[in-house]
Amino acid sequence: MPKENVSLQISYGELAIASMIIASESRYSDNGQMRIHILIISLLVFCWSLTSQASLFLEPYVGLSKFEQKQEDSAGFVTKDTANWFHLGVRGGYFFGKRWFVGGEYFRGGPYTFKDLSFGTTETENSTSFLGGIVGGDSDIIRVSASYFPSHDMTTAGTSTVVSGTAFRVGLSLKVGQKIRANFDVFIQTLNKQTAADGTETELDPIIEGETAAVSVSFPFQFN
Questions:
Q1: What is the pTM of this model?
Q2: DSSP letters of the chain?
Q3: Terminal CA-to-CA distance of the chain, rounded, Å?
Q4: Cα–Cα distance, 212 to 70 (Å, whole number)
Q5: Each residue of 154-197: pLDDT tens digit?
Q6: How far, in Å, are 56, 94, 95, 97 from residue 224 at the CA level?
Q7: In whole angstroms, how far apart are CA 179 and each of 17, 122, 219?
Q8: Rounded distance, CA 22 to CA 120, Å?
Q9: Separation in Å, CA 51 to CA 11, 55, 221, 224
Q10: 102: left (phi over 0), alpha (psi -120 to 50) or beta
Q11: Phi, psi of 3 (to 5 degrees)
């Protein structure tokens, strides 16, 4: 982007903020209509300045994750197991200026090999997937973000049953090259529903709780 365009966008943003300050300082003025006009104009200019600096981004990633799942029965007895495997995913969305962004995220991990939570004797291979929205802030070198996944499924190899629920993620990303970022993420998962092959849904009791710690590298693409 040419330097003169950048300076123009910044000046518009500063003009909008200055107008808001002037309007707020004039709140005790008799000319209330003028104050309202200044506020409306300043908000429009501020929104335009954000839009003029907006861009789309797409960021696929791949890495290694540790998934721990546990259940607690009615007697308070907790069974849990942990497994490691690879995962991949993609984040994409819309940057407002250069700092803030919103968008969507998809994650798929596994298969993670667990012993059966009820008996601890047989092994199962579980795969997880997440689909939801993401918000975050970026200072170029460091990026922080959070995602909420209203769609979270876990499938077991050899069966057609799907266990589902919701999940939440917080993450930190560091720029390690012009086209590479290193990511550190933690997912908190709750699985409370089971869907059979015929579509029959039942509530899980007890529910399955999970935590996933993930490290990955991503390859960001930005489209101005």
A1: 0.74
A2: --HHHHHHHHHHHHHHHHHHHHHHHTTTSS-HHHHHHHHHHHHHHHHHHHHHT-EEEEEEEEEEEEEEEEEE-TTS-EEEEEEEEEEEEEEEEEEETTTEEEEEEEEEEEEEEEE-TTTSSSEEEEEEEEEEEEEEEE-SSEEEEEEEEEEEEEEETT---EEEEEEEEEEEEEE-SSS-EEEEEEEEEEEEEEE-TTS-EEEEEEEEEEEEEEEEEE--EEE-
A3: 9
A4: 12
A5: 998 888 889 999 999 999 999 998 889 999 999 999 999 999 88
A6: 6, 10, 9, 10
A7: 34, 43, 6
A8: 68
A9: 14, 9, 19, 11
A10: beta
A11: -60, -35
Q: Which two tokens stand for residue 132?
A: 């939801």
